[in-house]
Amino acid sequence: MIELFSADTPNGKKISIMLEEIGYEYKVTKIDLGNNDQFKAEFVKISPFSKIPVITDHEKNESIFESGAILIYLAEKSGKFYDKNERLKINQWLMAQMGTVGPMIGQHHQFHHYNPGKSEFGEERYFKITKRIYQELDSRLKQSKFLAGEDYTIADIATWPWIARHEWHDIGLNNFENLKRWYVEISKREAVIRGFQFMNKNQLPPQP
Ligand SMILES: N[C@@H](CCC(=O)N[C@@H](CS)C(=O)NCC(=O)O)C(=O)O
After folding, report:
1. Of 5, 29, 31, 33, which is least packed with CB atoms within 10 Å of its CB?
2. pTM over 0.90
């Protein structure tokens, strides 16, 4: 049994989607970030930077933090979405999500969605960077069906929940034909819908 410590955010959804995709039984333990649950001593023991998501694999008595590391762990354990022959490509797109897509779009959420009007510089900077990321992903998806090649992998699972916040971004997913095609196709996968709803059964992936 896997226990998923999480919150209803793009980083949190990466792991519920993966667990649904590989068909593992899992239990969700909610970490209420607004209530500072992430700083409680018990949680910090398994999450040194006080961040969700974390999983505990109770079968092995092993806890894993950092969503990219969790995806790799679950992919290796299940033998899914992480083809041994394609790992060099998958790792690059996964690391690009971890180092660029998530952190930059996360800042766009902070300045544009949660705190508009507080910093013109921050709003402009992350709006521009997010637009660039849309363009860069669109270019990649013009040449390739999925991010790392012909197959759906953990790189797509890591990236998709960030684009699922497209309504907050005000960039216009409809203007990016290839990114939209990829987004819509993944949003129709049953496991993705179940994983997306892991904390709120009424949510559906927003369609462009
Ligand atoms: N690089 C980390 C980022 C995780 C992250 O930023 N989690 C946020 C929620 S999406 C969090 O737990 N924030 C709480 C805090 O920093 O206090 C990962 O991918 O796991």
Report:
1. 29
2. yes
